[in-house]
């Protein structure tokens, strides 16, 4: 959730299989790691409900979502160069770890594309609808938290675009996708306790603080990734789409 996304400092945890879990009582963990990627929080209010355009692939592929300002496209191998560019950004690297090499970006793009195929959900690449410029990446992915199947949400926004509401716009669209497409009834989000920008985004998404948890992450005033970093856990209830 912080600038949410894949923490690339260490190998990602194994992704749960597409079957074998009851995904309906979904929680969204708004954080990073390949259950996430550095996601830049921004403190604009998401309360304004933007009109949403949904274009569905006729070939059975993933959805493309459109918000008022963004075109959100399911990440696949074709987006490797853009992921590489994103992870060179110092603001993203602040939370995600060292910049990705071109080879690592290709691996990540292929991994996300495969999870879209198997799970029906993962991260989007975000472009400005007017200019076509790269904004960042964000969305959901299936993972596990405390042994439970969950949906995680995260976002990564290019540093020059911070403070313009893009993180909250992606987060709000992810919540709509969770309720309307996946039938989720509950969402959770968590990030390091000192990631104030991301916590502000989560709160503006209407989520409520639940409790502190411990997991691998960053600790204020200390170098590196620690196995028991303090995280703030948030929750929100969703009303699934009828049908």
What does this structure look like?
By secondary structure, the chain is α+β, with helices and mostly antiparallel strands. 23% of the residues lie in helices and 34% in strands. It has helices at 80-86, 90-96, 102-119, 166-180, 196-204; strands at residues 5-6, 28-30, 32-37, 53-56, 63-66, 70-74, 123-128, 134-145, 148-157, 186-192, 208-218, 225-237. The strands form three sheets. Strands 2-9-8-7-6-5-4 form a seven-stranded mixed sheet, with helices on both faces. The protein has a three-stranded antiparallel sheet with strand order 10-12-11. The relative contact order is 0.23. The model is unreliable at 8-62 (pLDDT under 50).
Note the main attributes of this structure.
single chain; 243 residues; 7-stranded mixed beta sheet; 3-stranded antiparallel beta sheet; 5 helices; 12 strands; 23% helix; 34% strand; globular
Structure at a glance:
This protein has 243 residues and is α+β, with helices and mostly antiparallel strands. The chain has helices spanning 80-86, 90-96, 102-119, 166-180, 196-204; strands spanning 5-6, 28-30, 32-37, 53-56, 63-66, 70-74, 123-128, 134-145, 148-157, 186-192, 208-218, 225-237.
| Main β sheet profile | 7 strands, mixed
Low-pLDDT stretches are 8-62
Average pLDDT over all residues: 77
Shape: globular
- Assembly context of the chains: single chain
Roughly how much helix do the residues carry, as a percent range? 10-25%
Q: What portion of residues belong to β-strands?
A: 25-35%
- Number of helices, counting only DSSP H or I runs of 4 residues or more: 5
Tell me the strand order in the biggest sheet: 2-9-8-7-6-5-4
Ends distance: 30 Å
Structural class estimated from helices and strands? alpha+beta
* SSE pattern, N- to C-terminal: EEEEEEHHHEEEHEHEE
């Amino acid at each position: 959730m912080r600038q949410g996304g894949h923490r690339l400092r260490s190998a990602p945890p194994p992704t749960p299989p597409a079957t074998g879990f009851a995904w309906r009582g979904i929680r969204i963990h708004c954080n990073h790691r390949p259950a996430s990627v550095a996601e830049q929080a921004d403190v604009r209010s998401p309360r304004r409900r933007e009109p949403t355009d949904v274009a569905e692939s006729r070939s059975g592929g993933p959805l493309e979502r459109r918000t008022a300002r963004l075109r959100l496209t399911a990440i696949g191998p074709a987006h490797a160069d853009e992921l590489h560019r994103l992870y060179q950004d110092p603001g993203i690297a602040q939370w995600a770890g060292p910049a990705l090499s071109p080879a690592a970006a290709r691996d990540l793009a292929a991994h996300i594309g495969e999870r879209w195929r198997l799970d029906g959900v993962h991260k989007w690449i975000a472009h400005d609808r007017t200019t076509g410029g790269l904004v960042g990446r964000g969305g959901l992915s299936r993972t596990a938290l405390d042994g439970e199947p969950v949906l995680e949400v995260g976002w990564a926004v290019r540093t020059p675009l911070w403070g313009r509401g893009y993180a909250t716009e992606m987060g709000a669209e992810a919540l709509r996708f969770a309720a309307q497409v996946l039938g989720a009834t509950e969402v959770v989000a968590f990030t390091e306790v000192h990631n104030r920008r991301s916590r502000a985004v989560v709160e503006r998404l209407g989520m409520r603080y639940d409790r502190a948890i411990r997991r691998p992450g960053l600790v204020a005033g200390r170098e590196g990734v620690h196995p028991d970093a303090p995280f703030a856990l948030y929750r929100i209830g969703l009303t699934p789409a009828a049908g």
